[in-house]
Amino acid sequence: MSDNTQIILVERPNGPLKESHFEIRHGEVPKPGPGEALVRSILLSQDAANRAWMAGATYKSAVNPGDVMHGYAVCEVIESNSPDLQPGQLVQGQAGWQQYAALPANALQRCADHRPLTRLLSIMGIAGKTAYHGLLNVSGIEAGETLLVSAAAGSVGSIVGQIGKIKGARVVGIAGGAAKCAWVRDELGFDACIDYKSAEMATALTEHCPDGIDVYFDNVGGDILQSAIFNMKYGGRISCCGAVSQYDGGPPTSPIGIPGLLVIKSLRMQGFLLMDFMDRDADAERDLSTWSDSGQIVIAEDVIEGLENAPRGLIGLLAGENRGKRMIRVGPDPS
Amino acid sequence: MSDNTQIILVERPNGPLKESHFEIRHGEVPKPGPGEALVRSILLSQDAANRAWMAGATYKSAVNPGDVMHGYAVCEVIESNSPDLQPGQLVQGQAGWQQYAALPANALQRCADHRPLTRLLSIMGIAGKTAYHGLLNVSGIEAGETLLVSAAAGSVGSIVGQIGKIKGARVVGIAGGAAKCAWVRDELGFDACIDYKSAEMATALTEHCPDGIDVYFDNVGGDILQSAIFNMKYGGRISCCGAVSQYDGGPPTSPIGIPGLLVIKSLRMQGFLLMDFMDRDADAERDLSTWSDSGQIVIAEDVIEGLENAPRGLIGLLAGENRGKRMIRVGPDPS
What we know:
By secondary structure, chain A is an alpha/beta fold. Chain A has two domains: about 5-120 and about 300-330, Quinone Oxidoreductase, Chain A, domain 1 (Alpha-Beta Complex); about 125-275, 3-Layer(aba) Sandwich (Rossmann fold). The first copy, chain A, is built from ten helices and 15 strands. In chain A, strands 3, 4, 5, 6, 7, 14 and 15 form a seven-stranded mixed beta sheet that branches. A six-stranded parallel beta sheet of chain A has the order 10-9-8-11-12-13, with helices on both faces. In chain A, strands 1-2 form a two-stranded antiparallel ribbon. Chain A is globular and about 60 Å long. Strand 13 (about 270) of chain A pairs antiparallel with strand 13 (about 270) of chain B, so a sheet runs across the interface.
């Protein structure tokens, strides 16, 4: 336990992320200070926002060259200098791309021993809760409404659409490639899925949302957001979850017609972060576990083995190769 | 009563509006058809949105060359073919820039005989209600919050800031020119007012909103909206009421960082139209009349005599020459 494998960001990417922006190092396992705990990473979340963290400060501080790459992980407490945590407990927090981290106990959240532990990042974790709060508490959705979801095969989008169906909406996804679109329709049960790589978006939206869009759940920003705004119904709502088209060297575009189109169509655009809804997490956990236990939600997980594969995993995620929630298995489950 | 003075839009403006885009004609007083009423205009509202109507369809059909210019007016019913309206009653609706109009009775709204009748367009009408609903029912405002209001000397902005003060907010206005800014501060009671013609906006916002902006009430769009977005607090709200910087040949800009900044700061941007809140108009009327009767709101009206001055009035409004609610007196009050 003296070796701590770490992945360092060695250069700030200016354009598409590459493996050469990272370096593997073998550091020492840290000693936890007063009030800190030493944790061992089990599963590391991979999210498009990880790329945005490299560009500068966002809702958290930037990742700078020389830093261990930041990342959210499910961990086991190994040693604790805080009365709040005991060895063997499961926690989650910003442990970074490394095997071991010493973190203040109050920066770690206890989590239930929910097996398989992958669920703590997929349906019962960051993906499921982001989808739940972003759809139900940001935009809202009513039975009979038309819901458009971009990155529909991704970790959040795949769940948003399924919750939309449970709530009685007509759900249209957007994803890249015929195979992913078929999966979104056939396995996840969306009513339709537009392949943005082959379809002309304006035509496709007119075809699949002939009466306009009530709710657009936006994971991508850019041109697709623009097309959606043009096709929103009067009084429509846009839940702004992310802008993956902008993160990895994509052109920094903003939709035209802001604020004019918001005014004349009485549209609401609302950004959010998962942490805004901590006080309603119990609702999310209750509903998400009911829906997944009953099979109403198909759980899609994409687990890559080995911390050394984290750079490749994130690069692939930004290129859209994942289906459902991508994560890295850093170490074994506790027995 | 056989002559009906009308102002016609004779050319679609492509750039700043000029008097030459209009022509005065003398038509006939129309005969109301079945279900219609003949109305006589008393006071004609002038609003920045009038200019946007000339560019194309918005929340209503476009004004096209050859049309009587569209406009919202307080009128007296002269003759009625509908059981719902009687001669002598006061109504408001889209009567256009003309002395007489024949309109379907169901397109006209009855209004109280509230003297002076100018109040029906200012504090108790389109200006006051837009300010009320846009601030209280779109963005919301809490005591202790910082409220930024653009076009602060305008019909809506001047009231928004005063309602903000009543609700206990710290209110910072933005207006053009030192004299207007002094009026906004000294007469309307805003805490501060930034002169966008002389101040560097980023510096001024840092100075006057050092802890950031909780609520931005946007009447202008463009560069000021951009600066406001950069200075919004986490969880801030933007009430999108209009985009006057874009209407009159201004560059059609959109703020950069959409949706990224909305996501990382959990911002909400919401467009609205007055008609969205018809079911809550009674609340607005009750509160606005209380506040104006008690002197808590200073009523600012800018009345221009004579329909023939409507083109000049609108051109001046787009250039920001008005203080408070601009309107045209087309004819005398009913006795």
